[in-house]
Amino acid sequence: MRASDGLLLLWWCSGWTVVATLTAEYVLRTIGKDECQVPENEFLARPVFSDGDNLSYEGCGLVEGGRGGATPPWRVVLGRDDCDGLLLSRRAILVHQEPFSLCSLEARAKGAVSRPLEARMGKCVTERGGECEGYVRRVGAVRRLEAYPADQLYLLLLEKPLPKGFEVPSVRPLCLFNRDNLADSKLQFLAGLLAGSGKEVGVVGVRECMPERMLQDKCRRYLFALCVAVDEGFLEDRRALVWVSSEGRHFLRAVAFANSRDVVHSRVAFHDVLRLVDPLVRLAPDIHRQPEAPPVHNQVQFVFSGEKEHLSFANCGLESGAIRSRRDVDEVATVAHVFGGRNAERGRHPWHAHLALGHGDGHVLNCGGSLVSDRHVVTAAHCVFVEGVLASARDLHVTLGMWNASDPEEAWRQAQAAWRVFVSGGFNASAGNFAHDVTVVVMATPFRFTAHVQPVCLWNDVADLDRVANKTATVVGWGLSGDGGERPAVLQRAELVVRSHLDCFLQNRPFFSGNLQPGINFCAGHANGTSVCNGDSGGGLLLRRGARWFLRGVVSFGKARPLLTGDEYHLECDPRFYSLFADIATYIPWIATLINST
Asked: Contact at 8 Å (CB) between 173 and 287?
């Protein structure tokens, strides 16, 4: 930490400065009726917004000339000086509404107020009437942040985005804090717009920040606060807490509570922005962050009699001897342009299943799947729903040993209707986000193991994706194989690189910010035209360890593009972007329980 780094307590009315040091103390105890327990010194990871400087918005946090005046470039005035806000992007404004404010944001969020609300930025904040160097924009939407439902925090969205690059130097967004909360003890606060000399004051904890009675009454609200000690007169001018880096870039660390003057004398409580990032990203269409990864699960060990490798099923994951003994030159070849793949060798993927789900209108939905025992097939949950309704098991037909889909007389095929279908408990067909996109299909009669029908092994290593990131995995299917909607007759195979969550997020921040869910799914693919596509859903993404293949992912979904076929547009996979796969490692205990009990 360099001496020029600092944190800034932002206000906009006068020009004096106070220096304060931040603490993020959390109390470990049960308080009052709420039974509110919070771990002491809870760690909050740094949010990842972008590569490079990791900024929440390009060009954020800079003041023209390195210094500013009474109006910082991210200040927004709403209505006729009814309330103030902070500009976070070309569309998003964060507002902490003071009590008795005339903005009426709560009523606007509920649709009870229809009159237009204007937002003034730049020199238009102080220059009224005629032209001004800045912007006046109408607010299009008012949305309340649910992170602190007892307080008045709102995100406002402009009807019309500001120009790219903002064009006017007096208008710039404020950066969201991009460090973890362990950095707080190394940083300082400064009261006022810019860093400067000031009086240092002591560090206080949350318990010192407010009376015991208030902790009991408002535990859930205040225990997650940041608390700062300031001079008595400052209590009337608390707005936000801002860190100023050595490069002069400003980062929003916290925003004040509406009733923070109820705290102990000479203390100010603030909302922790690290806890606001997720709800902000959900509401702001042009701010994106990498979703956080959950704690890593322990390695799953399956125990079968005579097995020393902790396999999910005896002799799983092995190709037939004749095929396995041959050297596969394509295994190490550069992948050419199951979209942009190549023909798979007959019998090379004996665990790959074809699932056909019939409609009442005769239409058939096609998906893939992976045989993981003699009676259990793992596929995608969305493959067993028709217009949001779970299909009957008897309408789902499963075929193993298929290679040429156009040849119903293939001698190696084994087919039967499903007996039962178990959908992952977290899957919601109507949500449209494909979370927990995993299903286990159970057969009434075991499949007969042959050279063309064999089970694949369930993942039995730790779930940490970093352990397999940048490794090459294999996927097969009969999905679309090229532009124009061609479906191949012969099973297609492609090698896709497993991507880290960070690489996935950075490839397409707007799309993956909302769809990547670490611990639930992950990315794999190339940007060269090789991808899974329509019709490949449910198929397995397999990694090879030694002579065995292990199921790590299930084809779920990806970014679509509109293509014109004849006179009509239809959506098709976009092979320029990575695809998303349900992360089987998370569901291994559930799948193993089903194998043992059904």
From this structure: no
